[in-house]
Design a protein that fits this description.
The chain is α/β, with parallel strands linked by helices. It folds into 4 domains: about 55 residues, Orthogonal Bundle (Arc Repressor Mutant, subunit A); about 140 residues, Rossmann fold (3-Layer(aba) Sandwich); about 140 residues, Rossmann fold, CATH 3.40.50; about 180 residues, Rossmann fold (3-Layer(aba) Sandwich), CATH 3.40.50. The protein is built from 20 helices and 29 strands. The strands form 7 sheets. The chain has a 7-stranded parallel sheet with strand order 20-19-18-23-26-28-29, with helices on both faces. The two termini are about 50 Å apart.
Length: about 575
């Protein structure tokens, strides 16, 4: 692909998706990440995309004026919100963030997928909706292809998305009994992955004529792959579960590969979530699930439900009232049996780049603002990073408490090591030996610490000093305590790390220390990096956080490790 053509393709991908990372664009365009970064610089200067950290965002904004996401506050999540609307993302994330919310008795409204301790879950009946659209697909196959149906199911591992796929397959086989499910693949809910999987599968299996995507993002990736492969639209249908925003509604209206879609109505889901949050805040009883409606729409019926305006596609409320069952009264002027409204509602966004969550966020914010309720968007990636950083700081604080006057200590390199160095800036009468350049630089600010560098070759990626000079220096040194860090910890493989030059240095450090203290938050456990450093039995103490499961802590204790839990 020539540069001008690739630049236009990048703009098209980004405008379709809203945001794509450098890695995703590299896969889509089949060029190196370095080439993509150069292309993004050119496109950003031309104002064709907006260059962002790690990727690119579209300059075509569909957000109404006055509805930009608010700036994220710096205080703790549990100190900022009165009610939380959240989607279960992963057990690790749920344990980290939602446990603290529960401890504060902050009500949780689950969106799309049930989670622990929610007041209710707001979701479509995923199996029933999948079954309905599956029957439609079977009837289409009977009418146009004499019942021949070969399916690529682009699914995801969550319980709700699995139900969509299972329902679709069941409905399809009821109306087209000979339907063949050629592949059912986890597309990881990512546009680029869906695109590449679809392209690969269709290249190998040319008989596939139905692609089912469990959300719009996956369906859009599949649509682009079909287009790039020049597949005849008469021989293929791509079926999205969602019809979440303007992009796919426009595509559905035009016809082509997308001849039908299942609409989940974010215009209904959003106010339902907010009204449920208000009820939960006031301790009003809620059903176990608030089931939101769905509808199967084609290019012919789309305009019966939606109308195209200068602001995009808008729901025709006059057409749906009385025809769709709403799970709760979502009118703003409805009589309320209570006068207290929450001050602020938080919404955890798991896939901020998905059009469903873009649309849902704006509509929730709009409904809340009309009630004079503040609305905060909580980005999963950033809040997880913040929570892990907090835990690492507390691990470093607990490690600093292990250091006594006149101790000679070794500090390995890594994120926790940098925090530990900061904790030592008020210490004196200690000697610190390190191969970490950041640790060394931080501790130069404390003249009361005797500071020894191992020397060695500088490894830029980790900012560590490695190689024979550093290893030779360690053979001549002894320390009372070693604060060790690795990238992988498991019961079977022990301590492991990613780089052999750092591994040999860590092994020398272990031999030079009278006591080995491992610093690791819960995210390092269950990981096995490429090279073993040592068995777990070399560790005398482990300082970690309380997200490490008690069962694993017990197993580590049996190996002779003393476990210290940081006060998180």
């Amino acid at each position: 692909m020539q540069t001008p053509e690739r630049l236009s393709q990048i703009v098209s991908y980004v405008d379709t998706q809203g945001f794509l990372s450098v890695k995703e664009l590299s896969h889509l365009c089949n060029v190196s990440e370095m080439t993509i970064r150069r292309d993004l610089g050119i496109l950003d200067q031309a104002h064709r995309i907006q260059r962002t950290y790690g990727g690119a965002a579209s300059v075509r904004s569909n957000q109404p004026a006055g509805l930009q996401p608010p700036t994220r506050a710096e205080s703790s999540l549990v100190d900022r919100v009165d009610v939380l609307i959240a989607t279960s993302v992963s057990p690790t994330y749920d344990n980290l963030l939602l446990e603290s919310v529960t401890k504060r008795n902050i009500p949780i409204i689950a969106e799309s997928l049930s989670m622990q301790n929610e007041e209710t879950v707001v979701a479509v009946d995923n199996y029933k909706a999948g079954y309905a659209i599956g029957k439609w697909a079977g009837e289409y196959a009977n009418k146009h292809w004499n019942g021949r149906a070969a399916v690529l199911d682009l699914t995801y591992q969550l319980a709700n998305t699995q139900l969509r796929s299972h329902g679709f397959i069941a409905g399809l086989r009821e109306t087209a009994p000979n339907a063949e499910i050629v592949h059912s693949i986890n597309a990881q809910s990512r546009y680029a992955i869906s695109y590449q999987l679809t392209k690969d599968v269709l290249t190998v299996n040319k008989n596939i004529n139905i692609i089912f995507g469990i959300n719009d993002t996956i369906a859009l990736g599949a649509l682009q792959a079909c287009k790039d492969l020049n597949i005849n639209p008469e021989n293929m249908i791509v079926i999205p579960f969602g019809l979440e925003g303007d992009t796919l509604r426009n595509i559905l209206k035009e016809g082509g590969y997308c001849k039908v879609g299942l609409a989940m109505f974010p215009e209904i889901v959003a106010p339902t979530c907010v009204e449920a949050a208000i009820s939960a805040y006031n301790h009003q009883p809620l059903p176990r699930q608030l089931i939101t409606p769905y509808a199967i729409l084609t290019s012919e019926t789309l305009c019966d439900v939606y109308e195209q305006t200068e602001h995009g596609w808008e729901l025709r409320w006059d057409a749906i009232i009385g025809k769709l069952d709403l799970p709760i009264d979502i009118s703003l002027d409805k009589p309320r049996t209570f006068n207290i409204l929450p001050h602020r509602i938080g919404f955890i966004v798991p896939f901020s780049e998905h059009e469903w969550y873009k649309k849902l966020t704006l509509l929730m914010q709009e409904h809340a603002s009309k009630l004079k309720i503040e609305f905060e968007i909580v980005d999963v990636d950033q809040t997880t990073k913040n929570e892990v950083d907090l835990r690492r700081r507390e691990i470093a604080r607990a490690a600093a408490e292990q250091i006594n006057p006149n101790d000679v200590i070794m500090i390995d390199g890594g994120p926790i090591a940098n925090y530990l160095a900061e904790m030592l800036l008020n210490k004196n009468q200690i000697t610190v030996i390190t191969n970490s350049v950041p640790v060394f630089d931080i501790l130069t600010n404390n003249p009361d610490i005797i500071l020894i560098s191992t020397g060695g070759a500088y490894r830029h990626s980790s900012q560590m000093l490695v190689g024979p000079p550093a290893e030779g220096a360690l053979r001549e040194l002894r320390a009372d305590k070693l604060f060790l860090m690795v990238t992988g910890i498991s019961l079977d493989f022990g301590l492991s790390h990613t780089n052999i030059s750092e591994v040999t240095l860590k092994q020398n450090m272990i031999r030079s220390a009278r006591e080995v203290i491992l610093l690791a938050d819960h995210s390092y456990f269950g990981q096995e990096s490429i090279i073993q450093v040592a068995p777990l039995t070399v560790v005398n103490k482990l300082i970690t956080d309380d997200a490490l499961p008690a069962s694993l802590r017990l197993e580590l204790t049996k190996l002779g490790l003393q476990i210290i839990l940081a006060n998180v």
